Amino acid sequence: MLRMTQYRMNEFELIKMVTHGAPVSLDGLVCGVGDDCSVVTGHGGRDYLITTDALFEGVHFRPDWISPKTLGRKALAVNISDIAAMGGRPLYYLVTIGVPDKFPVKDIEALFDGMKATASAHRMHIIGGDTCGSKKGLLISITAIGEVEHAKCLYRKGATPGDVVYVTGTFGGSALGLSCLEKGLRGIEMREYIRRHDEPTPRVSTGLWLASSSCVSSMIDVSDGLAGDLGHIAEMSGVGIKVHADAIPLPEGFIRAAASCQKDPRALALTGGEDYELAFTVSKNKEALFEKMLKVVLPTFNHKIAKIGDVIEGKGVGVIDMHGAHLPLVSKGFEHRF
Amino acid sequence: MLRMTQYRMNEFELIKMVTHGAPVSLDGLVCGVGDDCSVVTGHGGRDYLITTDALFEGVHFRPDWISPKTLGRKALAVNISDIAAMGGRPLYYLVTIGVPDKFPVKDIEALFDGMKATASAHRMHIIGGDTCGSKKGLLISITAIGEVEHAKCLYRKGATPGDVVYVTGTFGGSALGLSCLEKGLRGIEMREYIRRHDEPTPRVSTGLWLASSSCVSSMIDVSDGLAGDLGHIAEMSGVGIKVHADAIPLPEGFIRAAASCQKDPRALALTGGEDYELAFTVSKNKEALFEKMLKVVLPTFNHKIAKIGDVIEGKGVGVIDMHGAHLPLVSKGFEHRF
Fold this sequence. Notes:
The first copy, chain A, is α+β, with helices and mostly antiparallel strands. The first copy, chain A, has helices spanning 11-18, 68-84, 105-121, 173-183, 191-198, 204-213, 226-237, 252-260, 265-271, 287-297; strands at residues 29-31, 38-41, 46-56, 89-100, 125-134, 139-149, 164-168, 216-222, 240-244, 277-282, 305-312, 316-320, 326-327.
């Protein structure tokens, strides 16, 4: 994400204002504001997951840095990631686009081709939308709808002291890619990270498996930085989280690439945004079972799963080194400011 | 709505491109793209209605013409109108807003106060959203979710030759109000029309009653102009519609106000946008029953219901005078162009 001008409210304060007094549950509403998706009662024992996420020109993307087709793919993928984070399967989406006056029709087509390619990969279908000329730059706002078995849905709340913290994949790659784009570094060794920034892969099948495992106590997708999003699990569960710095997966190539951009790889991994990996906690008495099942299923995933920390009594997220000493968070994670 | 720069595609062409290949129905999807809302299977014999509609600064509104609070009310009301048009009851909404850098926080609060006031009047609840700084003007994109009894849902399709065409309320007032805003006419006799433009009243209770009456064969809300929206019923039902010009409700005050703005009142009523009234057809063999029931219930509505035309074999919408002569449509209705 591109950083914004400082303003008087950050995104979380604004969301708090907007959703003040919003119900957490109602007849038919299983879960309201405050998780990756809201959840409403569906049919046949399943619930619908509903989420909305928008990409704005000049804020989330620069058209000279990303092709319309890739942008279309990404706009839908970031919404699908929220469904994956609840253990759900994506079904439908609605798209609102604002198109600047001189935006070429072939680029609108490419944008929708990208969206359709991502939709098709997840067997999702468009069910509505609104289109509008925009005097003010391109924007894509998507509402995505998924489904989940009522009893299997995973929330941010649910972590208990003693639970173990796991993550899928690696972290910081997307933030490094953004840094490369900002600095004009397009060398072959940077392409992987630019691709991670431009083409996030929502972890749908992994999320479905985690939901079906009955071992997971809480889950979130990591879009605002690993430390920040683990903080959401901690806050919603009323617990603290201790992250073992050395357990965070930092591939050799990533460490080298970060260094060549004058970036601290650990700081990128903890606070960089837009990784779209999953972070989750496994119930303390199910860790052995989970590890056993994971060994069987992991070869079918195209990513690793790493144990990176523990749920503790208390609050907030702390990072410790191999000797147990607390390490500072270099930055507090990405914040949209208004 | 403010008119846009001419562009290479109109809104309907763009929607066609976007939704090309989209399913009309799937397992769990009762109705896909192509009506006021899409419809997905709910629980307990009810379905969910889902719609999305956005307001863009400089396209749908000018901030010097409408207060943030009124804008918030309107942004949600236009979405609720789509739910009313299917005979549904609004339940939930998700809001994405893009806020310009220097937009005052008190105006964001006022915007949400307006939205909450409309939500509260309809017992709707916010269940999600996304907030973002916008380099490019204010925008509000809303997804609204309602519910309807499965068997009672009213679609644009369903009109049959011989059916009778009805409308709620009056038409053209909102377009006249926009014209007053454009011309800087703010006199006391114009305030009613400016209010109609700024503060649409979605016909939810009327829509619910119409759905429960079992007499209605098709329904739509009139947002793009009466002639244009009746055209959608005609197209989706595979029929023609004959409108009796003299039956269109044109109050005396409206005729005078239109004249003082050098506008043809009938043209405003047929092609002006944003009335957010309901247009519907009553099955030919149920007209007498419908009229009987209507007589009982009408005093509880705060608007009239008028019979304005007939469904015929053929296609398109024609307007005839009292002698049966065809009248031309002065304009083809409002089109967003891109």
